């Protein structure tokens, strides 16, 4: 009997030990399997879908205005595509005539008919959303009509011979009076190309500067003004641009004379006259995609693909006067009276009217490219 009890005890002890070991082994295998599921974090680690936020991050390009237009009563409008436009406000009734983009900012210039208020200059470093007044600090100098940027310098020109230059984004300005051989010159347009600034104005006067606007030299435009006065039939050059190593300027002639178009391929030293037998006033000109396009009164649009040698008239679809034009984002865009905005994506051959949301006159337009 005693031997039997010893045997039973031994059997019970052996069974308990075997069951414990089996349980321990099973538990260890379950934990290892669970760990392997956690280690296979490749599904979670492949967060490239979430990390590739380039779609969201690149919204700045979509939201960035390619175009900014300015005009009467302080009008400022921005657009990322030239189709839809947003009104911006600075809070001024000054007319804004010229606008350009350079060194990361937009700059627009204008003024008031009140002589002693001086030039009016606004800058924007946030794509035209908000604007800061950066006047030259002078009064009694009349309004500014055009502005451009080149070689690290902003140059703005206007009435009474005044030309202002700034190399610090409009914070400080240097002034210059450039009248040439007359007592007073009203500069209407300015552009930059091939390390040269060129400004044009009334009575067909043209000035060039190769030292960032410090000194200016009057050039012979080849235009004669026998009456000696703009009001008596003189040529007024209003728009100028540069492209394909050629400067092109357009203007208006009073008393019903043919319209003047001048071209120069030697940095404005000599000019060729390719006058069109059209009695109209041309206001703005630009260059893009190997094409020059100029606009004017009564919806006039002409294009040239041979550096201004020959011109083709296009149908704009509007009788409103067109005053400014630019090229950007593979699109020509022109603005004018009654809030007119037209775009063309086929080198100015055909034009589509866009809704600006204003009846104010739009005087100038530029792009960020």
Descriptive overview:
- The protein contains 5 helices and 28 strands.
- It is mainly β.
- The radius of gyration is 34 Å and the shape is globular.
- The strands form 7 sheets. The chain has a 4-stranded antiparallel β-sheet with strand order 3-2-1-28, with no helix packed on it.
What's the N-to-C terminus distance? Answer: 107 Å
Number of helices: 5
Largest sheet: 4 strands, antiparallel
Residues in helix, %:
10-25%
Report the mean per-residue pLDDT as an integer.
81
Uncertain segments are 1-62, 226-232
Topology (elements, then pairings):
Elements: H1 2-39, H2 42-45, H3 48-51, H4 54-57, H5 59-63, E1 67-71, E2 76-79, E3 86-88, E4 95-102, E5 105-111, E6 120-124, E7 132-133, E8 144-150, E9 153-158, E10 162-166, E11 174-177, E12 187-193, E13 196-201, E14 206-209, E15 217-219, E16 235-243, E17 246-253, E18 261-264, E19 272-273, E20 282-288, E21 291-296, E22 301-304, E23 312-314, E24 322-328, E25 331-336, E26 341-344, E27 352-354, E28 362-367
Antiparallel strand pairs: 1-2, 1-28, 2-3, 4-5, 5-6, 6-7, 8-9, 9-10, 10-11, 12-13, 13-14, 14-15, 16-17, 17-18, 18-19, 20-21, 21-22, 22-23, 24-25, 25-26, 26-27
């Amino acid at each position: 009997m005693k031997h039997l009890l010893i045997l039973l005890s031994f059997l019970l002890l052996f069974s308990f030990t075997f069951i414990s070991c089996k349980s321990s082994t099973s538990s260890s295998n379950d934990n290892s399997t669970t760990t392997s599921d956690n280690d296979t974090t490749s599904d979670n680690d492949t967060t490239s879908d979430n990390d590739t936020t380039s779609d969201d991050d690149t919204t700045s390009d979509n939201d960035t205005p390619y175009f900014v237009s300015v005009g009467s009563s302080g009008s400022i409008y921005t657009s990322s595509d030239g189709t839809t436009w947003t009104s911006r406000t600075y809070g001024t009734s000054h007319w804004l005539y010229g606008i350009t983009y350079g060194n990361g900012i937009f700059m627009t210039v204008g003024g008031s008919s009140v002589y002693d208020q001086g030039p009016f200059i606004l800058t924007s470093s946030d794509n035209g959303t908000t604007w800061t007044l950066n006047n030259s600090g002078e009064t009694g100098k009349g309004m500014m009509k055009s502005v451009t940027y080149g070689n690290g310098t902003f140059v703005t020109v206007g009435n009474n011979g005044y030309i202002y230059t700034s190399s610090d984004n409009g914070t400080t300005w240097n002034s210059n009076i450039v009248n040439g051989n007359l007592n007073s010159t009203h500069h209407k347009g300015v552009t930059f190309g091939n390390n040269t600034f060129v400004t044009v104005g009334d009575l067909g006067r043209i000035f060039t500067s190769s030292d960032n606007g410090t000194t200016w030299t009057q050039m012979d435009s080849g235009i004669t003004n026998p009456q000696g006065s703009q009001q008596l039939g003189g040529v007024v050059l209003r728009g100028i641009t540069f492209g394909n190593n050629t400067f092109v300027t357009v203007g208006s002639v009073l008393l019903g004379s043919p319209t003047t178009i001048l071209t120069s391929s030697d940095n404005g030293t000599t000019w060729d006259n390719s006058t069109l037998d059209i009695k109209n006033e041309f206001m703005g000109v630009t260059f893009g995609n190997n094409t020059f396009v100029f606009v004017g009164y009564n919806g006039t649009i002409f294009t040239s693909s041979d550096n201004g040698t020959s011109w083709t008239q296009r149908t704009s679809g509007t009788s409103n006067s067109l005053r400014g034009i630019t090229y950007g984002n593979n699109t020509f865009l022109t603005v004018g009276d009654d809030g007119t905005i037209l775009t063309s994506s086929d080198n100015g051959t055909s034009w589509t009217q866009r809704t600006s949301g204003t009846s104010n006159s739009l005087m100038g337009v530029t792009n960020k490219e």
